[in-house]
Amino acid sequence: MANPHPLLEYAVFFGLAAVLIYVVGEYLAWIYRDEAHSTHTLPRHFEWLERLDGIFGRIEGFIYRVAGITPTREMNWKQFAAAVVLFNAVIWVWLYVVLFFQDGLPMNYVGVDGQSWDLAFHTASSFTSNTNQQHYGGESLSVFTHTFAIGITMFLTPATGLGLMPAFARAFNNEENPLLGNFYVNVVKGTVRFLLPISAFIAVLLISQGAVQTILSGQMTAETLTMGIQNIRVGPHAGIEAIKMFGTNGGGINAANASTAFENPTPFSNLVLTLAMPVGTFAGIYAWGAWVGKRTHGIVLVAAFFLIFAALAGVGIAGETGANPAMDVESNGLTVDQSVGNMESKEVRFGPTGSAIWGLSTTSTTNGGVNSMHNSWTSLGTFSLLFAFAINNVSNGVGTGLLNILMFVIVTAFIGALMIGRRPQYLGKKLEWQEIRYVFLVILWLPIIVLIPQAHAVTSSLGTEAIANPGFRGFSEILYEFFSASANNGSGLEGLADDTPYYNIVNGLQVLLARYVPIVAQLAIAGYLAEKKISPEGIGSLDTESPAFLVLLIGIVVIVGALTFLPALVFGPIGEFFSGADVFLNGGV
Amino acid sequence: MNRDDLTVSVRLLLVSFLLLGLVYQGSLMAIGATVFPHQASGSPVTDNGTVVGSEQIGQEFGPDDPEYFWSRPSSTDYDAMTSGSANLGPTNLALSDRVRATLENISRYETPDDEVPADLVAESGSAYDVHISPAAAEYQVPRVANQTGISEDRLYGMIDEATAEPWLGVYGHERVNVLELNRMVHDELED
């Protein structure tokens, strides 16, 4: 049997992703039906879900009692935002304490040190904000830290994101009612019904493929043929990996993330984990249609962002199945056969296509886990990754992704209505200056917190001393790092020596600003809209279920992203692409 | 700040230690130990009861071991207590230099072809990839045959045995487990 053609792998992946988005999307829509004030009915082949209500309800009831949650308590947007920020602050403090003091805590089987104050600041901020950018190697954390700090944060932060979605649906389903629901109920339901069972399922699949799973040991020792003793790091890899990929977390238990076999052992595990990324985020976008009573509109939104994702993956595959110019060399009559593609920093079992699809999945969501090292990607491949960042990671994060794409949707509805001379409204709610100013704040927030620090970092030795590769690639390394922090992604053009107070503080602030400023703004938008009357859509209203709306939406997303970041991309991958090979063959950049 | 919110947040975190820390990771460990004990314990390879490696983790076989099939270059010398490649970019001359040095090592022995399969000179992302492509394994057959005296046919048979297929033939790549292959070579030499 030979290797599958890249187009076959592409078709298999996107075909399966589309089916799973539908199934998981309906499931998610069911979970939050009441919290979203939705009246949608389940499709007939999903009606059996109602029988699960009793089992889940009992677990949730137990948690409400133990945690002291009053499920009937309703919050307005300010109370909701306060609950989000406070809950996340508590997680942050716990993370910081564990990271700083982990050398003195139990289950430190291999004797790791505590993190420095600035590294712990960055790590705690990065994991609390669902970014999972890492300025350390995963192996430098203890099994305790992974199990009881990093691991539980990987559930609670996507649950925070999930918890925002039904609140935002209330904005459109409420008739002059400012109450958005109970944040804690949403977190508990999202964890118990969505994140926990699906992650456990993925984790068992991973173990069957060869992922290691133990919380009682930190290493195994082998007597090898040629290299003496080889110590191998072990731990709760399967459990962490599953929620890391499904919850758009991305922070590896190993430094080399899912390129290592204990995180991602086989082509099958690779397929499952790659699918886990977009399915988690797009399911929320699909569910939106059900919640607001317009499934076709949900499908149009999924389609728009799915097409962008698939197109970027195509560019990524084109880049990575091409040759690496630096390996186009000759020595003693031997040259390199690169017909398979660019293999530098990639695993044989995944190949260039499986690595490229993963790379675009991790940057078309805010996951940030990697199964190949992006810094060794070709300039074309790197361009596709950075472009995905420029449009705020396409489908963004679990939960927050829906809210972020809705900002673009609202702008599209706004512009679309003005184009046909109607008063702007979306789903029956009029769009006025008090909401729209926050929509624009959220959309402009990414360029503000990426480009201003970028300008400083590339002109200061504090920034440039960390660069690993010369020339355009070095510019890309810093741009990628700031994008990654500011889009709450977490991957990197690793090699950048980023564990310095400068990067720890700048990136640490970026991840926090990138997460909480938009969340508060979006809850404010929800609060304002929820108080409005629902005006029925007339014959002349903008049709949000049409192909025309889909095209307009894609156009707005791409133009906003491309125009804002084009100059920066020119200094990075575009410059490398156009000068790369030539400059390189003439003696290097 | 609402005192109730703070209490609820702290208590929710405490429930999470139990449910998402202990119960989740612990029951996965229990399922692993009962249903997939070999995989969950790190897929150990044993020889007379001694652990000699993991099926999932590559070991260093390189220019100093011409009698074995070589693994891929590694910037960490197959240290599995850490991971990660050197992150050299596609226009970095240091990458060209490293590739030339690897080609030079390969050229010291028998080569069936002037074109060396890419994965044999490219570093892996993990720095301990246990696999090489079938092409990269077959490329090394003349050298290993000459160094060990094992027939080329026998070596091709071993490569076949150590080869795993893409998932259902539609996702991922064919690969040869270098550790498994070299254990076979080793056992053949011992006999």
UniProtKB/TrEMBL annotation, chain A:
The entry's keywords: Cell membrane, Hydrolase, Ion transport, Membrane, Potassium, Potassium transport, Transmembrane, Transmembrane helix, Transport
Any single GO CC term annotated in Swiss-Prot or TrEMBL for this entry: plasma membrane
Membrane topology: Multi-pass membrane protein
MF GO annotations: hydrolase activity; P-type potassium transmembrane transporter activity; potassium ion binding
Taxonomy, superkingdom: Archaea
Keyword presence, Protease: no
Subcellular location, principal: membrane
Subunit-structure text: The system is composed of three essential subunits: KdpA, KdpB and KdpC.
Family label: Belongs to the KdpA family.
Name of protein: Potassium-transporting ATPase potassium-binding subunit
Organism of provenance: Natrinema pallidum DSM 3751
UniProtKB/TrEMBL annotation, chain B:
InterPro entries: KdpC (IPR003820)
Keyword NADP in record: no
Pfam family, one: KdpC
Keyword Transmembrane helix assigned: yes
Subcellular compartments: Cell membrane
Quaternary assembly: The system is composed of three essential subunits: KdpA, KdpB and KdpC.
Main function: Part of the high-affinity ATP-driven potassium transport (or Kdp) system, which catalyzes the hydrolysis of ATP coupled with the electrogenic transport of potassium into the cytoplasm. This subunit acts as a catalytic chaperone that increases the ATP-binding affinity of the ATP-hydrolyzing subunit KdpB by the formation of a transient KdpB/KdpC/ATP ternary complex.
Name of the protein in its database record: Potassium-transporting ATPase KdpC subunit
Species the sequence originates in: Natrinema pallidum DSM 3751
Taxonomic classification: Archaea, Methanobacteriati, Methanobacteriota, Stenosarchaea group, Halobacteria
